[in-house]
């Protein structure tokens, strides 16, 4: 009868999809296309229920710097046997090289503005805590000493941000200046 795999109804996480053994159409060459474009900003427009979150979590899982060797091994296992692994080493050398900020507005719903804003702040807090070590580096302390207000994030930091209705966008390189300025001005402390 063949290899039966369940359909991923309601599953929108790349990790859950791969680890759960769900039926998956390999779209990892999208990573190659994205890297080949070399754009500073890319806008992904897709209709509702068309896999935006799944693709964004795939990008996050590919580019995210692992916290330790065990996480790095898990990251390699997630992509084992997929098309991106068969691509040139140039593309695979990008795996696990960037701190990725992932915000999904799916969980920021509320009955009013205050509730929606509080939910968004919660999402930002989760990402802030995940990257706290990057914000508490010696480089950050040096920058604060010089008064630059830098967050300590490298200029190669990437942010994958799903945008409601319009698709999603990947920000990179110099686009994290606003985050650095906000960190230097204490915005994250006010949110927390």
Set out the fold topology:
Elements (H helix, E strand, L loop, with lengths): L13 H6 L9 H9 L3 E4 L7 H12 L5 H11 L3 H4 L2 H4 L7 E3 L10 H18 L1 H4 L2 H9 L11 E6 L3 E5 L5 H8 L2 H5 L1
Q: Could you describe the 3D structure shown?
A:
With 192 residues, the protein is α+β, with helices and mostly antiparallel strands. It has 11 helices and 4 strands, in the order H-H-E-H-H-H-H-E-H-H-H-E-E-H-H. It has helices at residues 14-19, 29-37, 52-63, 69-79, 83-86, 89-92, 113-130, 132-135, 138-146, 177-184, 187-191, and strands spanning 41-44, 100-102, 158-163, 167-171. It has a 4-stranded mixed β-sheet, covered by helices on one side. The longest helix has 18 residues, at 113-130. It is globular. It starts with 13 loop residues before the first helix and ends with a helix.
